[in-house]
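Hey L., structure's done. Input below.
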Amino acid sequence: MMRRLVVTMLFALSVFGPSMCFAQPAKNLIPAYQAISTPDFGYLPTYVARAKGCFTDERLDLKVIVMNSRVSVPALIANEVHFGVAGPAITATLRGAPLKAIYFIYNTSTFQFTVRPEIRTADDLKGKTIAISSPGATNDMATRLILAKLGLDPVRDVKFIAIGDAKARMIAMDQGQVAAAANNPDIAAELVRKGFRILMHSGDVFPVPFSGTAVNEKLIRENPDLIKRWLRAHLKAMLLIRQRPDEAAQIAARDLKLNLDIAREATTQVLQFMYPNDPGGFTEKGMKIFLQQTAPRLGIDPDKVAISQVADVSFLREAQRELGIKCRDGYGC
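Output:
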């Protein structure tokens, strides 16, 4: 019986590769807490990893908590959660917080700047209200860069309102409370079906590592094993999304309560932004662009900020090697 089980597992590995998750019995699991800013495609691998038993396979009992970055960053600093959103965490790091980014899903920002049906041109946005997730967040930065590219002054031409949850931003747009917002592909696809328009993709102006995760340096020192378990689960999920996108779309449709066709469309879109040569990693160029956009807002010279000050890829590289993933072209490969 044991020999048959081993043969079956080896056959599965040969067919599916390292992304195959063999969910172990839920005994003696290690509790872990991850804060996300909003339940959407920005965290697709987390949902896929949970659905396919990748966390259980790594003996993790992962609790996913939705919270605004104004709450999640202090929680990460206070070690109340193990994993938090990287964008605002890097900003906090530049201010002196003991945080490090360890993982990114996408090699560019994935926002689609969506406007109400009556907005035909950028000029129609003058005097209108635009929704952002929270001040200083990557959503805010991308929105301001998009507006500038469209020829608008983000300070004088429009007003902003912070609406943290992506679904809440969609409702605000639907009800006419706001004229536009930068949305992730699943939300944008839903709005387009209602007659809304996409004016620009944020990747055109904000090609930075995106949908990342950060940890406290205390966790790096005291529990590196937890970090590697979390990373291996996410890497397996990323490989599974690439190998079986329709299955990933079905998981997204169920867990994010989306129409299946919209989930399939969004999955196809985000796959092109997952770095195949370095899943979970980022390029030096991309991170430098992020720092160039972030540091000056804090009165810091970005050229004086080393990437190692804000990110630690050592655990990602270990997890990749353990799964047989060969990193190419990424930072620290």
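Residues 43 and 206 are 19 Å apart (CA to CA). Residues 112-204 form a domain with the D-Maltodextrin-Binding Protein; domain 2 fold (CATH 3.40.190.10).

-- N.
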